[in-house]
Amino acid sequence: MFAVLKTGGKQYKVQAGDVLRVEKLAANAGDKVLFDEILMVGGDSVTVGAPTVAGAGVVAEVIDQIKGVKTIHFVKRRRKHSSQRTKGHRQQLTLLRVTEVLASGADKAGVAAATGTAIARRAAHNTAAAPVVAEAPAKPKRAAKAAAATE
Predict the structure, then answer these.
(1) DSSP string covering 26-93
(2) 46-99 pLDDT, tens per residue?
(3) pTM value?
(4) Edge-first strand listing for the sheet containing 32-35
(5) Which residues does residue 2 pair with via DSSP β-bridges, in sequence order?
(6) How far apart are the C-alpha atoms of 20 and 143, rounded to whole Å?
(7) CA Rg, the chain, in Å?
(8) CA pseudo-torsion sign 8, 1, 27, 88
(9) 3 state SS of 106
(10) Of 41, 98, 100, 111, which is most buried by a Cβ count within 10 Å?
């Protein structure tokens, strides 16, 4: 059985036992994560989602957090400027081993959903938002004017 899952803006065709590198996820080595954004499940019969397959999921185990190969961006201005600049980048990746593909019942698997680091930071920021401030008491003159206006 295979599945096509979407994570980090990319699509991956996976089956049990596959090892893949995806955009960095908010998980530690040894954790199990569940991908619930499944676009297609195949095997004896093929199920294509519109846009996703309801109840399907892929369970994977995090092997390690790694960095990708370094990409170098070299900028050079020609002729009179004689300036050069080298920039490099190494993408943060998560190494996963797919343990099982679930055609249905993924919501009952009891495994935490896979979230990217940006989503995790946003969720943590929103839960640690400013404390709720009690409503300030109304000013007496304004309250009196408002009461007089309604009469």
Answers:
(1) S--TT-EEEE--EEEEESSS-EE-SSS-TT-EEEEEEEEEEEEEEEEEEEE--TT---EEEEEEEEEE
(2) 989 888 999 899 999 999 999 999 999 998 888 887 889 999 999 999 999 999
(3) 0.70
(4) 19-23, 84-102, 57-76, 32-35
(5) 15, 42
(6) 64
(7) 25
(8) negative
(9) helix
(10) 41
